[in-house]
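Troubleshooting log. The previous structure file for this entry was overwritten by mistake, so regenerating from the original sequence record. Sequence copied from the archived sheet and checked twice against the printout by T.R.
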Amino acid sequence: MKQVMLATIVALVIAVPARAELKLAENVTGKGLGLTGNMTSTTYIKGLKMRLDSAHGDKVDSMIFDVENQKLYVFDSKKKEADVWDMADFSKQIGAADAGAAGTSSFKPNGQTKQINGKTATGYDMIIVMPTTMGDAKNGMQMTVTLTGTTWIIKGAPGTADFQKFYVAAADKGFIFTDPRAAKSQPGQAKARTQMYRQMAATGGVPYETLMNIKMSGDGPMAGMMARMGNVEMTSNVENAEVAQLSDDLFAPPAGYKVDAKK
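Regenerated output below.
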């Protein structure tokens, strides 16, 4: 459960500036829910494919979003196997599922600007409210996860058109930007996250800095304990971006890996 939640949070807070054949490095600082110190991520964009590598100590978790072929891969550097989801089928499952109390998202300009890498960035405030069931879907503890924060968008930055193209295409195809194991049990949350990325892509720029606070709330003593444990603060900053010729091999599990199809 903790690993799934961690993957979800990292994938959400890293809002990726996208450009065809782009290699992007970010630094992520987090605290709470076992997150301490710095993490690094490297994102590779090529057309309608994106790979995100998140490094935690000596382990690298990888997710490949292949919108072109409707596949999503999840694997880590310590295993010789990868999970793969057929996203055409998965999006139908999400669409047909009873989402319960669906999550909501808001993404609005806050009127502030700041300088990032010598360019003017415009501030946007974001809020995502996601009802969550901890444990068993029928009898589990009901809680609410609330994500609030600010992201700084550089409008017209290199890669803006590709950023919009990738995320809009992914949203249109029913893609999600989190671990499918979490999305399958909480479809309303997955839809709220996808909607936020669509709103972000519509700004006419790309995000270069994001501060996000994640809080959990609920009724009862156990929910209160989970709320105290679950509060997380994360900041991501673009450290380096470079245009590079990227191999197609980056956007598939490494050769020799056992691929396990998930449903």
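The helical segments are 2-13, 87-96, 160-172, 180-185, 187-201, 221-230. Archived copy saved in two places this time.
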